[in-house]
Amino acid sequence: MASEAAALQGLGAQAASAQAPARVGGQLPLGMVGEDEVARVSKIRGGAELRQHLAELGFVEGAEVKVISRVNGDCIVSVKGARLALNRTMSSHVMVTL
Question: Most-buried pick from 20, 45, 62, 91 (CB within 10 A)?
Answer without folding.
Answer: 91
